[in-house]
What we know:
- 42% of the residues lie in helices and 23% in strands.
- The protein has 15 helices and 18 strands.
- The protein has a six-stranded antiparallel beta sheet, with helices on both faces.
- Helix 13 packs across helix 14 (427-442).
- Residues 365-495 form the GGDEF domain.
- Residues 117-169 form the PAC domain.
Amino acid sequence: MRADPTSKTAxxxxxxxxxGRVLKRKRADVxxxxxLTLDTQSLRLILAGVFADVSEAVIVTDVDRRVxxxxxxxxxxxxxxxxxxxxxFTAELYERQQDFExxxxxxxNAQADDVHxxxxxxxxxRDGSVFEGETTGGVIRDSExxxxxxxxxxxxxxxxxxxxxxxxxxxxxxxxxxxxFEQRQREIIELGAQHFGLPYGVVxxxxxxxxxxxxxxxxxxxxxxxxxYDVSDTYCWHVLAQxxxxxxxxxxxxxxxxxxxxEKFKLEAYLGAPIAVDGRVYxxxxxxSSLPTTAFGxxxxxxxxxxxxxLGHEIxxxxxxxxxxxxxxxxxxxxxxxxxxxxxxRRLLVEQFDHELDRGHxxxxxxxxxxxxxxxxxxxxxxxxxxxxDAALKLFARLARQTLRxxxxxxxxxxxEFLALLPETPLxxxxxxxxxxxxxxxxxxxxxxGETIPLTxxxxxxxxxxxxxxxxxxxxxxxxxxxxxxxxRDRVHCR
Length: 495
């Protein structure tokens, strides 16, 4: 989750200088082997002056680990007033009692060395909220004989740690080959909504003024993919206007209080960034909430931009893969389909024939095979031209698709001849199907330049018999076709 903005921490060398200049002073009027012992009140006043304007939280405690001094940054970070902090037992500042006790045993005790080390700790504020604090601290003394005090300098690094975790999660999502695009996109949106504390997440594509929701995370269902708006009626217009991340943490108290989006959805908090795909603006990724939130910092805007950038890469990759799939499908179709009729070509038919024969043998299913040929096709071409012949072939293809089942296969075998494969179909049923196709052809004449041209086809059909080779089956179907031609055409012959 987002945390309070952070500032630059004081260094260990700074602590050493404080100890050297403030706590180990010699008095000029004492013997050379004597050292000055400052009382607690004097030391507190000195330290308060030294650390008053330091941007990190500074806390000084007595040997019992009760607070004797804090600076303004500490009061603000832990949300205690100076009066509330005074005398506070610092166990109250730790999320876990165990951490307080372990540090007391190893670092904050009279026997600890004077080396100030840096470590991470989870602290609890006065209101109960927890944050990650990068802490530099240890013992300070006025002399070897004096009573020690403990000093800690704390910097809130919750935002930095949360950002690191988010970037790691983003990498895991986008680098996992088992996740598809839809899943990756959804998980990126969910991750952003969780991190920013804004429950609504939207990926929108924007073309001119058209704003279309492509993916939506909407707990109450008020937003859904496919919804279209005018972009000027959305907060995303401001993202496009400034060509970068845009946010508002309390719309009711901003210039957006009269915005159409606020009037319609009552979204108080919004954070969005443009999505670029191949160098061009694709749309906007945004997160929002019906409740106000804390003001967004530069780290939030930077991370929001990174979310949109990662998502842009995902969209670009998906578009490239889609284009590649489409190109592959087109090439495959060109290689396996007849360009004129759109039916399968001889290559596809041979592959499908082998497949259906193998399946029929394996499961003891019947396979019927038919050869279909136009009657008097040469005369049609000679009298009306090849354009008429092409139109006749396309007409037959349309009628065949309408008559046959989706499980059947029909394709152009060569010239005006077609091959049909009817799996799991006995010979009698196959003959009935072909008779319906022949009747449809007979009842659908070709219209050329206002002239009606009757068309007919003949068919020969057979069924597989045991473990036959394709050539044997085709030979019988061809013989049946010639028999149909000899018997007067415009009919089906079975063999």
